[in-house]
């Protein structure tokens, strides 16, 4: 009986998150303020995957930490970016190896053909195959009718947990080419070090200012 109730509660939460996530995308829900990037820590990915790969421009190029190299004018078109072939519902999947909590996402668009990004969506969750089986974080549009940018910062409408983060280009004849994608977590959600777990507030301070501690929370957690 208890197990059945737990399943019902879990299902209700999943439905609630999905509905609220779609509400954010279509303007039904207003996202609450979350800590800016300066107050968040970078989540470290372990792998990445593209639905297809154009001329060897692999997905891992978008998680290599290089946010500055210009891809155009290089000897190889793959320098500084990941690049897919044209397709339907093309996506980049970033794998963190374990469940993480995401509050902010930054997308580094390529230097040229920036409008190719078009409509895009960011999803977070544990389903590795279908991004839309997860929870939407945020969405955006880069097209010829709007203001284009090479650095696109997003704040999730709520802290979202999962092993994977996706950038999805919905629709047909889409092509993804980006320089880098980074996800961030709030220091308030960072696990505390065993030495400091009895005093969580000190763990958060240690994570923000590791120079104040010999054993830093950032490095040892």
Verbal overview:
With 221 residues, the protein is of the alpha+beta class. The chain has helices at residues 2-25, 200-208, 217-220; strands at residues 40-42, 47-50, 82-83, 90-109, 118-125, 135-142, 151-169, 177-186. Strands 1, 2, 3, 4, 5, 6, 7 and 8 form an 8-stranded antiparallel sheet that branches. It is globular. The model is unreliable at 24-35 and 192-221 (pLDDT under 50).
Number of helices: 3
CATH class (first level) name of the largest domain? Mainly Beta
How many E-type strands? 8
- What share of the residues lie within helices? 10-25%
According to CATH, the homologous superfamily of the largest domain is Galactose-binding domain-like
The arrangement of helices and strands along the chain is HEEEEEEEEHH
Radius of gyration: 19 Å
Class computed from helices, strands and strand pairing: alpha+beta
Determine the strand fraction and express it as a percent band. 25-35%
